[in-house]
Amino acid sequence: MLQAKNYKFWFCTGSQDLYGDECLANVAEHSKKIVEALNASGNLPFEVVWKPTLITNALIRQTFNEANIDEECAGVITWMHTFSPAKSWILGLKELRKPLLHFHTQFNEEIPYDTIDMDFMNENQAAHGDREYGHIFTRLEKERKIVVGHWTNENVQKRIGSWMRTAVGVLESSHIRVARVADNMRNVAVTEGDKVEAQIKFGWEVDAYPVNEIAEWVADVSEADTNALVEEYYSKYDIILDGREEAEFRKHVAVQAQIELGFERFLEAKNYQAIVTHFGDLGALKQLPGLAIQRLMEKGYGFGAEGDWKVAAMVRLMKIMSAGIKDAKGTSLMEDYTYNLVKGKEGILQAHMLEVCPSVADGKSAIRCCPLSMGDREDPARLIFTAKEGPGVATSLIDLGNRFRLIINAVDCKKTEKPMPKLPVGTAYWTPQPNFETGVEAWILAGGAHHTAFTYDLTVEQMADWAAFMGIESVIIDKDTNIRDFKNELRWNSIAFK
């Protein structure tokens, strides 16, 4: 289950004592007002906490190490109100393990033309101090986010709020544990990967379990609990019998209810936040988990099909990053299935055998129970729907052997031209940016997988910032992509990220 945490961000202002106590008092007062305004703006998803002005090597180092061990601190926002000698920041920055945003602002919005003098210049020299500070980051080759603009500007505030979600994703990444039920689909390359390196880079723990161990948890779910969940299903979703007897249909639905409860109890007891299954190894399970997995994803769990643990972890990560967004449109596993190649109507139909998260559904979902040739089990129940329209982001984390690469594609989701009454799965339909041909070619050139972690609620910038902090390569496919430059970028990256 996805549970919101009370994260906070520390606001640290840099200065020095060259201009006396009155100047330092003004620095503190100004930074407090900025913090108050940011918190009152309504544009930040987390609280900003003011910290005393940092003017010495020892105090900077102490503050950053306190941030490291404070479980509520998700990151640090820094601003150099006056000139702060950057050598004072070296040890603190080297030891800081939390995400950092360099806020390049100043207290006054406009130059006070009639009254400006050298005292004002000395006290209000962020244009000077932030360059000194920025230099040491570059010298240390340390990752940071830079936001430029006046602290009262709504767009600036929203950019800070957007980065906060990325910072929380960075922090929560080290808490992601994936239960890998059975193994990967045989002979499939892209769902494989170096799980040890993933734990080193991202903090993910990926542990394998035999399918019958989790099947025992399913078998232990009582009939009363199963029936209660079935009643919840019937009250929440439309029921499409497709000519089946209602009693028989309900039995199939009850299997998924039992799987949902058993899986969730297993995940909670073992402290896992994501799970993968594989249709080729279902053990004692009566059906391939469909409706059950869809419901777990809707609750915030990550999922990857056919053993794809990288997608499972990314889905969980993106659900964490987007948690609490007002009017969120959803996050899910997706899979590229088939194309529409009609001129002017090009797009990619997204789906999976069963497991697309209903958080992306446009309207009420329905339960159907249909045959499935894969898995060799009973006909599984599943939720069917079509996804919302609007912009989204599809990501693919791939293992290239010597490094990870995150491929980030801006896509435009739309409705299919006609309904698909015989297709009993949740679907989405999108055209990749900048257009179908370029987007698809770039995705294939980059080595993108057929499974993606998709969301309507995050941006290309947020996902690229996450990859940068993790120290991995990212490539972006969006409205500015052209194949010649994209090929060159891949060549340069192969050298830069070796």
In what range is the share of β-strand residues?
Answer: 15-25%
- The best one-word shape is elongated
How much helical structure, as a percent, in the residues? Answer: 25-40%
Mean pLDDT: 95
* Biggest sheet strand line-up: 11-12-17-16-15-18
Distance between the termini: 37 Å
- How many DSSP-defined strands? 19
Treating each run of at least 4 consecutive H or I residues as one helix, how many helices?
A: 15
Gyration radius over CA = 25 Å
Structural class: alpha/beta
Let me know the largest β-sheet: 6 strands, antiparallel, barrel
Q: Could you name the ranges where pLDDT drops below 50 across 5 or more consecutive residues?
A: none
Secondary structure elements and pairings:
Elements: E1 8-14, H1 21-40, E2 47-50, H2 57-69, E3 73-80, H3 90-95, E4 100-104, H4 118-123, H5 126-140, E5 145-148, H6 154-173, E6 177-181, H7 195-202, E7 205-209, H8 211-219, H9 223-236, E8 238-239, H10 246-270, E9 274-276, H11 291-298, E10 302-304, H12 309-322, E11 331-340, E12 347-351, E13 366-369, E14 381-384, E15 390-399, E16 404-413, E17 428-432, H13 436-446, E18 451-455, H14 460-470, E19 473-477, H15 483-496
Parallel strand pairs: 1-2, 1-3, 3-4, 4-5, 6-7, 6-9, 8-13, 9-10, 16-19
Antiparallel strand pairs: 11-12, 11-18, 12-17, 13-14, 15-16, 15-18, 16-17
